[in-house]
Amino acid sequence: MNKEGKNYVVGEIELLSQLVNSLEESALKLEDFYEEEDYEKFNNTKKFILQIQRKIDSMIK
């Protein structure tokens, strides 16, 4: 693999790492919003989590 290809792979891995971190943080917020009974924020966070999951899924295929 050439240097350009390695940089691309490293960039993809870094992006995946950021997405996973966002997913973890969002899951914690989701739990908080549920406990606070803030269902609007709960639903928005749930949608955000699903978007992240779809993005991760498309990247690892």
User: Which ranges are low-confidence, i.e. pLDDT below 50, for 5 or more consecutive residues?
Assistant: none
Care to count the β-strands?
0
Main sheet attributes: strand count, strand direction, barrel closure: none
Distance between the termini: 20 Å
Overall spatial form: elongated
- Tell me the domain tally: 1
Strand content: under 5%
Global mean pLDDT: 93
Order of helices and strands: HH
Q: Give the proportion of residues in helices.
A: over 70%
Individual helix count: 2
Structural class by helix and strand composition: mainly alpha
Radius of gyration: 15 Å
Structural topology:
Elements lengths: L2 H33 L3 H22 L1
Helix pairs in contact: 1-2
Structure report:
This protein is mainly α and 61 residues long. The chain has one domain. It is 90% helix and 0% strand. It has two helices and no strands. Helix 1 packs antiparallel against helix 2. The longest helix has 33 residues. It is elongated. The two termini are 20 Å apart. The model has no long low-confidence stretch (mean pLDDT 93).
Which terms would index this structure?
0% strand, mainly alpha, 2 helices, 61 residues
Can you summarize this structure?
The protein is mostly helical. Helix content is 90%, strand content 0%.
